[in-house]
Structure formats: structure tokens, C-alpha cells
Write a sequence for this structure.
């Protein structure tokens, strides 16, 4: 069984990091995993996206035209990639920045105002962790507890930030269940 | 009475391919004498250039590498970085160092690489047949400046020692000459000083040696010495341009 | 040993250290600059050498100088940078020094693009610089394989006293995959005292060593070239590597593909199997020496009607496949350049029997 998620948004929204944490959690859970970035000039302030592929078998093509899921952190990303998502997948929408829906009735659409939630937590920079938590809680792409461990691992050199990010994870999970 | 003249151990006992009146042989000998005097033959590696001295490894008795045109300072950098205990010098001519190898020499000097460069400036490409070099004098005729170097079109000769001395990284930069005994004695002192700085891991060291090329200048060896002294030395002034002190 | 999630570029840098290569010189270029970034932090930790050179030209000679001293040394670059290094690589091959070059390919010609490509296949396998010489070229298809090939590259370079290239596309450098470092793959450096310019005192010898590529005497140069040729023939006898996929049973078509492209083909083969269509694949792991015999034997299978060379360029490996197949089967090419990696669906459209 293979699952893929495309994570897309503006450069600077922490897209690559979200993908990396997710890939790490999947690896720790025993899956085969590939993280594929977009790279180059488009990183600098433009659109940034990466794809995470998780499978129980060795992963062949790292090129995914139709991912199972999408995390859209800005409107252009949603417009560009929503039509490519496989039926039945999760489309996560950053409700703080995107005022349209995916236009799809065959997917599980999840809208979360991540910036407002992050602000309530006291640090707007945790918005990407809120989004990731909400997506994982809804899609079940990896175990939520594994995700927590990977967040701790990612921030182990900035230990002060761990409690805040764990709070962000919880807030994201709640938001996903709130719908 | 002991011998008054002997071949340095660092110098091979073979005839060279250099033309009559060429000063490469003199400079080779100075380098070899200094290596003997410092007792470093067993840990010295020379780097030969492309140009008349391309075969200079045949005239020394220690390890040698041969580089591509202009790249000797990059090779020396690679060696010194991985084997700082070795004594490394590049031996380069003006086409090699001041034209095609300008980037390599400037950056090696600016990084303060702990090797030594012997830069032989005879104002012309030798091996390829007397073409214009970056150090060719104004109005000097060469096979590619048959009407004389036109500075309006190709600029003034490059003073490499001054250029390197302008870098802010500490270094030993000096210009000497190998055209008469009075200059040669001083040149040897400078070469010894350059290797000593390297042994002390102090700084990059660079010895430019103003030389002659009677063959390509179309002069006799005696005329060539006179021309170098009268035409080159006023422009390429001798002396230390920079010391690490 | 547990798995670590690592970007290909960083894993390549770490693999070199695990292989016992503590000397790295490089110049930044997308899409492989992370190797330099990684090693600028990592080399000081292990007492190694990191230096950012002023150009790829200079870097290739820093590699030459260090290799000529007998030290393990490597660099990484991408297509335009490799072109600049090709001068130094020719000298290194001529002077018979071991060194490892990693090319994380992007599209060309000229500045081209920065996205993944296999556009330097011919350059790497047929003629990277002037003069008669070849490199042993390894083509990884995953981050794990890149790690293993880097570790293998140093002893191979020493075995042949010749440059070895790791030829990866941009994705191999950019993607993250779990990797394991098997330190038991490390091979101790060979003794280089009989040729390296490491100083006479170092080897306790009064015989000086000379590292050079100049042979002015025509007979001597011819003998030198024959000696080099014999080394390349030895590579073909002893160090061809490839992987066969889905070739045990019958198959209607054979794909020959390497690197990231071969993974896409593997997925396409799996998808075709679901449809009941069998396609086999030979994946060259060395593209020089080329697994000619393996390709020919796989193509000769009775059920096999057609052979496809599939790569991310305009058909550079095609002629190697044709040469291997010797006209026994029709050979077709499919590929894309520019940075867009063909999808499994596109591969299926090409190879699915009419």
C-alpha cells in the first residue's frame, strides 16, 4: 500500500520541514519513504512544494502525478494541485489564507485556520505544525504518537521550542476532529 | 682546499634543454641550493608548469608533479591542505601564471596557502614560440605583437608582484632578478626566505624573478641582459613588496 | 544500525567520510551545494579538510594535487561545473591518480536548467576531457545506493589508479530517503608509495616519484595509452555491475534504464504486471564499463520482441543499448530532458505492446 501527500505553499511557510517531519515519522514507523522537494530559484519567496511518499514496499517512481493527499498552504497551491488529488484523499486547506474550497466533492476537505490557532498558542511560526497535526489526525498517514516523537526529534537542538510545538500538535489534532 | 663548485644534491646531474643565455638554469640552481641548505629534499614536492620549464622535473632529484597551464597554485593548494608537512613550491612562467593562471594564483595567495611560488618573468611566451605575454613590455615585438605591444589595445604589462602585494592577507612578496651576479645573490636570499616562511607555516611566499629570453627576444645573451636591465628593471622594480612582519 | 532520513547530497558527503576520505574541495552549484554545506560543518568534526575553491577548474587541480600525494580525495559538482573540471580530470587520468568525482546532473546544454537530468551520460562514459581515457562510472538509483557507491568508488579508483565518477541526477541529490551506513564497506586505502609524490622521507626511499601526464616521445605515449586501454578492458572484465528486474520469466519487452529513471520504469513494470503484461528490465549500475552481455542476453530471450532505452536525455545511452543488442531486436528510445521526469504512465504508453 502506497500513500503520497503533496505539501505546497509559499517559500518560508515551513513546507519542507513539515514534509521532513512527516517522512521521519513514517520511517520510524517502519515504512519505506521518499521526500522529494522542489528546488532552485522557485524556493526563494515563490512557490515551494515537496512530496512525501510512504509505502510498505520499496518505492519505485519518486515522481507522483496524482498524490493521494494534498496540504495546501496558500491559494495558488490549492488551485494548482487540488485537481490532481486522487478521489478519497484528504485535501487540507489553510483556512487563514485561502477563501475558496477545493471544488472537489470526492475528497475529504479539511479547512483549519492555522494562523489564528498558532497566534492563540503565542507563536505564529507554529502554524505549519498545527497544519501537519491536523492533516495527520485526519488522514492517518502516520501514527499520531510517531509524529509527536518526530517533532521532538526535529527540535532536539532547540529544546525550548518542544513544549510549544507539542501544544501546536494537540491544537491541530483538535481542529481536525472539530469538523 | 675543498671543492669550490659542486652540484647541489637537489639538482640532477643532467644537461638541460634550455637555450643558451636562458636564466632558468640559474634559478633552478638557486632553488636546489636553498633546498639543500634547509635540508628539506626528502619532504619537498615541486610542481612544474606548462611552458619552457615544463620538463624542469628532470632537473631536480626530489618528488615532482606536473600541472596544467596555470593551475599549479591549485595543485599546490590541494597538496598543502592534505599534507601540510610537505614543502611545496610551484615554478611558473609569465604566460602560465599571469595569463591563464591568474585566478589560481590570486586566490591561492589570498587564502594564504603555505606554499612558495617561483615566478619567472621573461616578458614572453617561451615554449610556444615567443608570443606576447601579459608581462611583455610596451612596444616589445613578439610573434603575436609584430609591431610592438600596443598598450592602447592590450593594456600595460601586469605587475604581478604588486598585484599580489595589494591583497590584505599577510604574505611574502618580492621581486628579484637573475640576470647578473649582484642580482642573483639577492635572489637566492629571497628564495631562502620564502621557503623559510613556508617551513614556519607563516604565510604564502612569492618570488618573482626577472629573467631573459635571448632566443625569443632575438638578442644575444649579453644583449638580453642589457635589455632586461634597461627596459624591464625600471618597470619591474626589484625588492620586497610585502613581508609578513 | 538504525536508519537515518537523509538528503542524497548530505548522505553522499557522509558516505565519503565513512569511506575514509577526509579531503573535500568543491565549488557551489545547484543541485548539489548541500554536499559542500554539509561537509563544511562535518569535515572539521572529523579532522578532515574542507575547502571551497575559486572555480571548478581550480577545484579539479586541488583534487589532482591531493590525489597525487596519495591521499583519498573527492569533489562534487553538477553538469556545467563538471565541464569545467573535465580539464583536470583528463590530467588526473593521464597521470593515473585515484580520485572520486560526483556529478549530480542537471539539464543542458549551456546553463540549461537545474532540474534532474541524465544529460551528461555521453560526457561521463565516452569522453569527459581531451585525450584517450575513460572513467569508471557508477549510476545510483537511490540515496542508499549512492552511499554504497561512494564507499565503493574510493577502492575502485585506487585499484585502477583512475578517476571514478558517481553519475546521479538531481533527484538523487535532492530527495530524502532512509539510509544505513555500513562501516564494514570501508576498504583501507592501498599503499601508494611506489608512485605518489608524498615526499621521499614519508616512504623512507631515496627514489623520487614523479606524477605527470606528459609523454613527448610518440612511442612512449602510445605505450602509455595502451596501458590505459588495458585498464579499461580490465574494468569491463571485473567491475561491470547491473541489476535485473522481472527477467526470470518470459517478458514481451525489455527496458534498459538507470538512475532515477529506472525507478519510474520499475513502477511502470509493476503496473503493467497488474494488467498481465510482462516487461523485464536491466538497470546498469556501472554505465562505464557497460553491462553489454547482460543487456544482450536479456534481449535475446525468445519472448522479448523489443528493447527500450529509457533515460532522462535525448537518447544518449541508446547507442550503447544498440551496440549490446547487435541488431537482434528492434531498439527504441524514450526519454525527456529539461527536468520533468517521465511518469510511470508515460513509460507504460511507450512500452505497452500494441
Amino acid at each position: 500500500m502506497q500513500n503520497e501527500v503533496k505539501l505546497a505553499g509559499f517559500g518560508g511557510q515551513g513546507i519542507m520541514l513539515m514534509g521532513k517531519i512527516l517522512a521521519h515519522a513514517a520511517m520510524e514507523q517502519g515504512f519505506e519513504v521518499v521526500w522529494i522537494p522542489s528546488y532552485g530559484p522557485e524556493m526563494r519567496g515563490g512557490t515551494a512544494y515537496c512530496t512525501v511518499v510512504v509505502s510498505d514496499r520499496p518505492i519505485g517512481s519518486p515522481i507522483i502525478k496524482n498524490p493521494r493527499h494534498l496540504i495546501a498552504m496558500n491559494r495558488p497551491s490549492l488551485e494548482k494541485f487540488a485537481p490532481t488529488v486522487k478521489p478519497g484523499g484528504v485535501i487540507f486547506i489553510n483556512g487563514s489564507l485561502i477563501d475558496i474550497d477545493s471544488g472537489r466533492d470526492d475528497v475529504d476537505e479539511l479547512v483549519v485556520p492555522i494562523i489564528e490557532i498558532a497566534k492563540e498558542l503565542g507563536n505564529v511560526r507554529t502554524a505549519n505544525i498545527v497544519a501537519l497535526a491536523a492533516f495527520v489526525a485526519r488522514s492517518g498517514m502516520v501514527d499520531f504518537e510517531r509524529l509527536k516523537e518526530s517533532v521532538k526529534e526535529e527540535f532536539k537542538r532547540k529544546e525550548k521550542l518542544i513544549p510549544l510545538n507539542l501544544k501546536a500538535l494537540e491544537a491541530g489534532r483538535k481542529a481536525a476532529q472539530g469538523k | 682546499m675543498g671543492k669550490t663548485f659542486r652540484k647541489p644534491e637537489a639538482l640532477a646531474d643532467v644537461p638541460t634543454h634550455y637555450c643558451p643565455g636562458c636564466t632558468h638554469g640559474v634559478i633552478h640552481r638557486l632553488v636546489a641550493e636553498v633546498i639543500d641548505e634547509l635540508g628539506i629534499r626528502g619532504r619537498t614536492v615541486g610542481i612544474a608548469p606548462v611552458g619552457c620549464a615544463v620538463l624542469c622535473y628532470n632537473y631536480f632529484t626530489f618528488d615532482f608533479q606536473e600541472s596544467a597551464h596555470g593551475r599549479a597554485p591549485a595543485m599546490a593548494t590541494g597538496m598543502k591542505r592534505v599534507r601540510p608537512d610537505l614543502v611545496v613550491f610551484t615554478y611558473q612562467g609569465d604566460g602560465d601564471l599571469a595569463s591563464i593562471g591568474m585566478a589560481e594564483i590570486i586566490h591561492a595567495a589570498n587564502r594564504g596557502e603555505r606554499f612558495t611560488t617561483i615566478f619567472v618573468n621573461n616578458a614572453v611566451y617561451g615554449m610556444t614560440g615567443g608570443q606576447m605575454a601579459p608581462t611583455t613590455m610596451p612596444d616589445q615585438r613578439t610573434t603575436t605583437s609584430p609591431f610592438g605591444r600596443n598598450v592602447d589595445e592590450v593594456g600595460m604589462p601586469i605587475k604581478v608582484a604588486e598585484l599580489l602585494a595589494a591583497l590584505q592577507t599577510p604574505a611574502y612578496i618580492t621581486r628579484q632578478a637573475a640576470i647578473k651576479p649582484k642580482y642573483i645573490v639577492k635572489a637566492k636570499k629571497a628564495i631562502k626566505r620564502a621557503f623559510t616562511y613556508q617551513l614556519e607555516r607563516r604565510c604564502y611566499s612569492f618570488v618573482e624573478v626577472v629573467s631573459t629570453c635571448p632566443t625569443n627576444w632575438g638578442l644575444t645573451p649579453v644583449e638580453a641582459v642589457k635589455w632586461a636591465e634597461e627596459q624591464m628593471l625600471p618597470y619591474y622594480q626589484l625588492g620586497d613588496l610585502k613581508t609578513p612582519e | 544500525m538504525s536508519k537515518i532520513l537523509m538528503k542524497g547530497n548530505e548522505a553522499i558527503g557522509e558516505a565519503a567520510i565513512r569511506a575514509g576520505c577526509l579531503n573535500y574541495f568543491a565549488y557551489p552549484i545547484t543541485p548539489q551545494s548541500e554536499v559542500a554545506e554539509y561537509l563544511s560543518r562535518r569535515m572539521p568534526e572529523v579532522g578532515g579538510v574542507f575547502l571551497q575553491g575559486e572555480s571548478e577548474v581550480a577545484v579539479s587541480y586541488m583534487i589532482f594535487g591531493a590525489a597525487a600525494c596519495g591521499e583519498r580525495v573527492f569533489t562534487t559538482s553538477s553538469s556545467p561545473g563538471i565541464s569545467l573540471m573535465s580539464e583536470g580530470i583528463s590530467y588526473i587520468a593521464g597521470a593515473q591518480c585515484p580520485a572520486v568525482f560526483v556529478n549530480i546532473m542537471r539539464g543542458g546544454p549551456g546553463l540549461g536548467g537545474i532540474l534532474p537530468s541524465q544529460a551528461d551520460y555521453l560526457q561521463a562514459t565516452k569522453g569527459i576531457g581531451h585525450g584517450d581515457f575513460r572513467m569508471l562510472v557508477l549510476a545510483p538509483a537511490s540515496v542508499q545506493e549512492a552511499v554504497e557507491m561512494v564507499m565503493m568508488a574510493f577502492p575502485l579508483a585506487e585499484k585502477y589508479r583512475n578517476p571514478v565518477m558517481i553519475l546521479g541526477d538531481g533527484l538523487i541529490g535532492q530527495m530524502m530517503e532512509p539510509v544505513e551506513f555500513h562501516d564494514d564497506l570501508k576498504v583501507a586505502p592501498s599503499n601508494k608509495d611506489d608512485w605518489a609524490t608524498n615526499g621521499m622521507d614519508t616512504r623512507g626511499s631515496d627514489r623520487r616519484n614523479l606524477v605527470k601526464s606528459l609523454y613527448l616521445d610518440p612511442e612512449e605515449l602510445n605505450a602509455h595509452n595502451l596501458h590505459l586501454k588495458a585498464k579499461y578492458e580490465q574494468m569491463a572484465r571485473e567491475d561491470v555491475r547491473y541489476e535485473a528486474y522481472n527477467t526470470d520469466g518470459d517478458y514481451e519487452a525489455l527496458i534498459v534504464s538507470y538512475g532515477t529513471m529506472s525507478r519510474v520504469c520499475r513502477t511502470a513494470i509493476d503496473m503493467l504486471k497488474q494488467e498481465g503484461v510482462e516487461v523485464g528490465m536491466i538497470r546498469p549500475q556501472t554505465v562505464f564499463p557497460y553491462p553489454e552481455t547482460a543487456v544482450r542476453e536479456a534481449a535475446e530471450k525468445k519472448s522479448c520482441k523489443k528493447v527500450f532505452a529509457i533515460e532522462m536525455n535525448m537518447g544518449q545511452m541508446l547507442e550503447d543499448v544498440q551496440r549490446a543488442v547487435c541488431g537482434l531486436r528492434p531498439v527504441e528510445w524514450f526519454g525527456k530532458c529539461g527536468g520533468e521526469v517521465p511518469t510511470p504512465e508515460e513509460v507504460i504508453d511507450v512500452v505497452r505492446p500494441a
